[in-house]
Write a structure and sequence with these properties.
By secondary structure, the protein is mostly helical. The chain has a domain of about 40 residues. About 75% of the residues lie in helices and about 0% in strands. The longest helix is centred in the last third of the chain and has 35 residues. It comes from Sulfurifustis variabilis.
């Protein structure tokens, strides 16, 4: 009787311990993800600035050739 009760209690503990928990909201990769997002934003800003400078240089070049 005790062995059956002990086996049942052990099985119940295993089942409770193995149930799925909701995924964590923040993971260890969250700082990495934020850094990548920020780097992409900075990259876009730098690309726009470089394009703007190239356009200005081209306009200045065409003005000076007249």
């Amino acid at each position: 009787m005790r062995l059956t009760l002990l086996a049942f209690a052990g099985a119940a503990l295993l089942l409770v311990g193995c149930r799925e928990s909701p995924p964590p909201e923040k993971t260890v990769f969250e700082p990495y993800k934020q850094a990548v997002r920020k780097a992409k934003t900075v990259e876009g800003t730098l690309a726009q600035a470089a394009e703007h400078r190239a356009d200005q240089a081209e306009q200045a070049e065409t003005k000076s050739s007249y």
